[in-house]
Design a protein that fits this description.
Helix content: 55-70%
Largest sheet: none
InterPro entries: Tom22
Number of helices: 3
Strand content: under 5%
Distance between the termini: 129 Å
Pfam families: Tom22
Subcellular location: Mitochondrion outer membrane
Order of helices and strands: HHH
GO biological process, one term: intracellular protein transport
Organism: Lipomyces starkeyi NRRL Y-11557
Number of strands: 0
Shape: rod-shaped
Structural class: mainly alpha
């Protein structure tokens, strides 16, 4: 069970004087002796590596959301790997199937071109010497 104890407020805690006007002594802390004066020495950018920067990026995402982002990254990586494998299979299949057809089509065009050349030569011979081939 919880016990409630009354707390008395002292005169020092209830001053109505604004914060800036209080007569407290803050001489032990000055601007030059601040604990943050050496921040530049701690965060030396020249000595920081790219890997340190990447590792520091994890602090941007709160711990409760990290598994969600990690799962999404894993799924995206899986989809990318699958699509690369599918592209490889499609490309090699097209090359194995289309290359022979292209070669056959090329040889057919060459043979038809040769036949057309032979016809033209026969027609030219008939024009020059009609009836010589009979």
């Amino acid at each position: 069970m919880v016990q409630i104890t009354p707390v008395s407020v002292t005169d020092e805690q209830t001053t109505d004087v604004p914060y800036e006007d209080r007569d407290e002594d803050y001489s032990d802390v000055t601007d030059s002796e601040s604990e943050y004066s050496d921040v530049e020495d701690d965060n030396d950018i020249a000595n920081e590596t790219f890997a340190d920067r990447i590792i520091a990026l994890k602090d941007i995402i709160s711990p409760q959301y990290r598994p969600m982002f990690s799962g999404a990254y894993g799924k995206a990586q899986g989809v990318l790997e699958w699509s690369l494998k599918a592209a490889w299979i499609a490309t090699t299949s097209v090359m194995f199937l289309a290359a022979p057809f292209a070669l056959v089509a090329n040889s057919n065009m060459e043979s038809s071109a040769a036949q057309m050349g032979m016809r033209q030569m026969q027609e030219a011979n008939e024009i020059i010497a009609p009836g010589a081939n009979k």
